[in-house]
Amino acid sequence: MAHPSIVILTGAGISAESGLGTFRDEGGLWAQHRIEDVATPEGFARNPQLVVDFYNARRAQAAEATPNAAHAALARLQTEHPGDVMLVTQNVDDLHEKAGSPNVVHMHGALNSALCGACDHRWPAPLQMAVGDVCPACAQPRARPDIVWFGEIPYHMDAIERALSQADIFAAIGTSGNVYPAAGFVQLAAHVGALTVEMNLDPSETVALFEDTRPGKASETVPAWVDSILAN
Ligand code: OAD
Description:
Strand content: 15-25%
CATH superfamily of the largest domain: TPP-binding domain
Structural class: alpha/beta
Radius of gyration: 18 Å
Shape: globular
CATH class of the largest domain: Alpha Beta
Bound molecules: 2'-O-acetyl adenosine-5-diphosphoribose
Number of strands: 9
Helix content: 25-40%
Order of helices and strands: EHHHHHHEHEEEEHEHEEH
Number of helices: 10
Number of domains: 2
């Protein structure tokens, strides 16, 4: 295959070696916070301060973080591979962008973006958001973090499914395979005959669905995988 079309899905594991905590590993974010309190529209309605504080802390941490060798390798793949490469991330940090990735599809939103709960306008989030921040478009005090919470629909699903339906290679990196629809991408890709590759520290919930599994740290497995693609 001369120039395979590639779709990559990344999760919290790719940013772990940059010092950002994952969700479900021991001591992860979901061991310290209740999902229903900080990652649902109902939690935000109940206690917006708690939710805004949670994402302010994560935004501050992400602002200090630097990308690792795995982010850098994917940026190299995106710029040097002559075929299509869609990089989809569940992560809300901007480490792919900091590493030089030209296009990143943030299916679960982004910490550096604010969203108006009244009119859906988006604007760059300040480092510290406040409850009741005013929307610059409609002037309603309804700003919220631009994060896809549980019960909400992930962003860019049409474009992602289109790319998966034409993929020759699908790679999932640093994701536990617990959260749908992302956890189902491997099945969509396998259905169209794509080669499926998992690069994760521990086997994910969906490991059995992958043809090629490369256990280990993303900073080691991903650069090696990118080298193998670019060498072909
Ligand atoms: P998880 O915390 O569920 O899974 C992280 C995965 O990364 C685990 O399977 C680890 O084994 C693996 N991992 C840890 N360190 C690694 C390393 N150095 N190299 C490679 N792999 C490593 O995170 P996600 O699967 O990304 O959604 O979670 C998916 C979604 O659930 C998140 O986007 C978030 C969360 O609830 C929302 O908040 C909507």
